[in-house]
Amino acid sequence: MFLLLPFDSLIVNLLGISLTVLFTLLLVFIIVPAIFGVSFGIRKLYMKTLLKIFAWATLRMERGAKEKNHQLYKPYTNGIIAKDPTSLEEEIKEIRRSGSSKALDNTPEFELSDIFYFCRKGMETIMDDEVTKRFSAEELESWNLLSRTNYNFQYISLRLTVLWGLGVLIRYCFLLPLRIALAFTGIGLLVVGTTVVGYLPNGRFKEFLSKHVHLMCYRICVRALTAIITYHDRKNRPRNGGICVANHTSPIDVIILASDGYYAMVGQVHGGLMGVIQRAMVKACPHVWFERSEVKDRHLVAKRLTEHVQDKSKLPILIFPEGTCINNTSVMMFKKGSFEIGATVYPVAIKVQDL
Predict the structure, then answer these.
(1) Which segment of 50-54, 136-140, 252-256 scores lowest on mean pLDDT?
(2) pTM to 2 decimals?
């Protein structure tokens, strides 16, 4: 038998009240709006506030740098290798100067050490080509109070340091637990909801419930990311029997698109938590999952996709033909497999706006 002291009882009561308030807030401001696809504008207000803070921080840094005659804007490169704007002759002279004690005026027009310059330039060109840049982190135009920022913005004043500290407290002591709770809520409801719907007989009622369960859970996950999404030309949404192709900017692109439309996913069968989610989802919706051995069989994949799109009662397939994520600066060449199965293609462009 355990006896609770008055102090322990107070802590238990406060903890119970806190959990009740938290669950009520999640239900009223997150889950219920996600079911009906509405928003109270809290995320937009939060983002507008952040944008104003970022703009003020940038102006403050520029003014502080000007007062102290500090060079705020420094040359930088978007590539992987930093390159100094020097000429060929200057770099070759520097190589000769570092490798020889002779006077440069008496050196011949060509030395064997000159080939190192051309070898280095060739290696830089190979490593820093246009394709490789697509996979490096995109530079930000202003400081976002985080570590990843534009190289130009390195000057930080005391006031901005205090602001950064407050941002750390808000992000990691309040927003992070809230986002984790929302993510687990969305994933948990997706697994439970699709599993329950999967036991219903096939028909319009099952399709109706499956659609709204998917939309609700994806919208909750979007709220966990504090994402503000603007959809254009909704009249051109992909329809049954078609294929939705989109550029791939991040792993959350599926959640972004699926929070506004009802799609059949295509992917490889996984284990662990992802496998649990896949097995639950396929019970309520005809998603197309491939075994590892089937993914390498191009003809088998095309056959499965063709069978899916030929059934006009099935959902449009969501595919990312690039096959990999790009850093939001460009689009890689699409793989042609998704365009060879003879279905209507609905192109979608995704653009992420950096803060």
Answers:
(1) 136-140
(2) 0.71
